[in-house]
Amino acid sequence: MMMMSSLLLRHNFFRAFFAMASFKYNGEWLQERRGGLIGAIFNSVLTRSEQGSRVGRRGRRFPRNFLKPRFFNWLLLLLALLFLFVFAAFALKLLSSGNEEEKHLPLSKEVRQQISSHDATPTPPKSRRRKQHFPCEVGLAAAVENILEPKNYMNFTEFSLDYVEREVNPLHANSRQSRFGGYQTLEEREESFFTRNQTIHCGFVKGMSRLTSPGFELSEDDKAYMNTCLVAVSSCIFGSSDFLRRPTSRLISEFSKKNVCFVMFVDEQTLSKLSSEGHTPDERGYVGLWKIVVVKNLPYLDMRKTGKVPKFLSHRLFPSSWYSIWLDSKMRLNTDPMLIIEFFLWRMRAEYAISNHYDRHCVWEEVLQNKRLNKYNHTAIDEQFMFYLSDGLRKFDPSNPNIPLPSYVPEGSFIIRAHTPMSNLFSCLWFNEVDRFTSRDQLSFAYTYLKLRRMNPDRPFHLNMFKDCQRRALAKLFRHRLLSSPPP
After folding, report:
1. Quick one: which of 263, 304, 331, 398 has the fewest CB in 10 Å?
2. Between the CA of residue 109 and those of 91, 106, 376, 417, what are the distances in Å?
3. Assign residue 66 a region: left if phi > 0, alpha if psi is -120 to 50, beta otherwise?
4. Domain boundaries, the chain
């Protein structure tokens, strides 16, 4: 009896306890807020149990907000943010790969192997800041009256050199299309490197037909004038690619103004452009010191390659000349030409003078730079480079004490030469490489010089490669008006 009453009291206690712990509102049991630790534990237990039962009741139904417009707005915002993140990551990757651009240039497999096989030491990454280059002092004579050509100066290698005037190659004898450089075979090319009495291809080659012209046609009056020049300074502008920059008259001596020919070769398009800019030739054909010589029937579609004719073949354009100076149209001559000849040729006992490049010294670097800047068709550059590698071209090694030149890459915008047989031969050989391959003459300079030297070990060619800072002291540099696009 006592036990029954005890169980009844316990039952009533728990019933009252649960009644105090919860109350019903709108058919659902809601938690009553309780204070103290016991209340917190109790509320937590009830909450978990209620949530579990609620989940069991709802099952896998989608939330009510899933089909509302606000949900689609948030979804579109998330997709836009994801797109921006991916785009930013791609841009950062593209920028970070800029320093490795040269490693991914479209070189052929053979060229890539040849370059990598000669890269003994990796070159450090170059700064993105453009280097500044300045002129340096050149020990020129004080005045033209103080200079005198040394005795026996012209005592260089002697041999007779003639030039092919008309194409006689049987393979092209009936060809209606003449080529300014002719159709030189590889065998004829190889033989032309020997310093001996010979007749070689050197531009101005006429076709078999009497009606064909090689191009680069000049008037008879201009030819007669140029035939009288003993010292010539020349430049050219073709395709309106540059401005006319006159030599600084006050820095040119009266002797040079009377005895040196200053000739600017232009085509008819350039002449019209210059005239519209106020550079109209006078009745004698002069604009300042420049004698304007108009060239008709340009031999090449590539204006750069056409410009190599007066650049390399001054001994053919000025057949009576003893000395000549070539300067690019981007330069303004600020030094007397006779003082230049005295310092770089007479004083150095040289028959050819050209400056080294201001930044690059190896043909490998020049190949990569030409391709990186898209200076010429990449396949044509590869073919030329592989040809030179197969014929013995080696990488420039500045640590070699017997290196024949201080650089294998010239800055070809300024050339001083004596018209000796060896100088004329080198000019013809260098032009033939430009005619056969690409117009990028910096690619063929070292090969031509080294091959000529290798095939004639007992007959030296006295070439003076001077510093680029000296070149900058002789003339003021400008930018070209227009850079023509590279050939396809």
Report:
1. 398
2. 29, 9, 19, 39
3. alpha
4. 8-51, 133-477
